[in-house]
């Protein structure tokens, strides 16, 4: 059977695409996904593992969900470990990367997904600490993590760094400037790093989801979700796997000439 036909048969079955000529395989790659025990991080970890990557599932407090995800991946015949760490703490980041290196190998794919609370706060009540809480996740954490993995990536002249951003930098919701401004800074960081690391064939990109409800949105009114969906050109909200698939593509050899880009995964809700 022709290789290209095998490729499409495997895709239609939802099976890992393992043909050696497949440009989206990740066999032999080690991926670290921060904040991976639930939501987008969980979907990203599953998609990367599905393509053959060995995945380190970072979590902060929910060991049970992280272990459950690792079991799901390993039961499917892939490799994963759960690693607890506060990815805003420099010492814990060093220990995290060291543990992944010693257990799975040097990190080839770094997905910066971890986030904290995202409160809406009017200008009269917001504090500088509210801004710093967002900067810690979207600037400090990426900086410290990249500093720990970039040496290996430069040495092998290959690597993938993928930030998880948000469409809010374009939609700019009111009373959300603490979060929106940090997401804007995250995009600037992505673009500058892309230029800096390009000579080593290391790509840096950002996936910007629309509003795709995660566990943190469990109590949000359904009316708000319905109104948002009706304003999306595709007339529905996305799903977690939409983000995972976008990240998996950017992590793959097929995306080797794509860097410094923001990929909006929001059904056309924004156009840049």
Question: What can you tell me about this protein's structure?
Answer:
This protein is α/β, with parallel strands linked by helices and 272 residues long. It has a single domain (23-265), classed as Rossmann fold (3-Layer(aba) Sandwich). It has helices spanning 3-13, 39-50, 63-75, 90-103, 128-156, 168-171, 177-197, 222-231, 240-251; strands at 30-33, 54-59, 80-84, 109-112, 159-164, 202-209, 262-265. A seven-stranded parallel beta sheet has the order 3-2-1-4-5-6-7, sandwiched between helices. β4 (109-112), α5 and β5 form a beta-alpha-beta unit. α2 packs across α9 and α5 packs parallel to α7 (177-197). The longest helix is centred in the middle third of the chain and has 29 residues, at 128-156.
Structure characteristics:
alpha/beta; 9 helices; single chain; globular; 272 residues; Rossmann fold; 7-stranded parallel beta sheet; 14% strand; 46% helix
In summary, what is this structure?
The protein contains 9 helices and 7 strands. The chain is of the alpha/beta class.
Helix-strand layout with pairing:
Blueprint: H1 3-13, E1 30-33, H2 39-50, E2 54-59, H3 63-75, E3 80-84, H4 90-103, E4 109-112, H5 128-156, E5 159-164, H6 168-171, H7 177-197, E6 202-209, H8 222-231, H9 240-251, E7 262-265
Parallel strand pairs: 1-2, 1-4, 2-3, 4-5, 5-6, 6-7
Helix pairs in contact: 2-9, 4-5, 5-7
